Amino acid sequence: MKMGIVNIIDRRKRLNRFLKINAIVEAAWHRNFSADTDQIEGCDGPTYAERKHIAMEDAIRWANSYPEPVTLYVYDQDGGLYPVTLPPDWPSLG
Predict the structure, then answer these.
(1) Under 8 Å between Cβ of 2 and 60
(2) Which residue in 61, 75, 80, 88 has the most C-beta neighbors within 10 A?
(3) Residue-wise pLDDT tens digits, 3-52
(4) CA distances in angstroms from 1 to 4, 29, 55, 68, listed in the order given
(5) Are strands 4-10 and 69-76 parallel, antiparallel or unpaired?
(6) Cα separation values, 45 from 36, 54, 80, Å
(7) What is residue 92's predicted lDDT score, i.e. its pLDDT?
(8) Domain chopping of the chain, boundaries
(9) 56 contacts 5 by C-beta, under 8 angstroms
C-alpha cells in the first residue's frame, strides 16, 4: 500500500511563496519518540533527503513518490535547510 506524505511541517516565513522553496523529507516514524504524536508502524523510509529551490508542487510530488509514510518539511528558498534535530531519547539503530 502506497503512503507518501502523512504530515507536512511548514517552516516558511513567506507563506505565499511557492515557486521556489527548499524541502526535506524524512521517514514519518522518526517522530514516534516525540511527545503527543501519531504513531507510525515500521522503520522504513528515508533518513533524510532534501531538494533545493523547487516548486511546492514538485516538492509534494517528490515526497509522495516514497512508498513509505514520510513527513515533508518546507522552508523558504533563502532560509536554508536546517537538519531536523533528533530528540535526546532517540534510539540507536546501529
Answers:
(1) no
(2) 75
(3) 889 899 999 999 999 999 999 998 887 766 777 777 777 777 778 899 99
(4) 10, 16, 27, 9
(5) parallel
(6) 21, 21, 23
(7) 57
(8) 4-76
(9) no
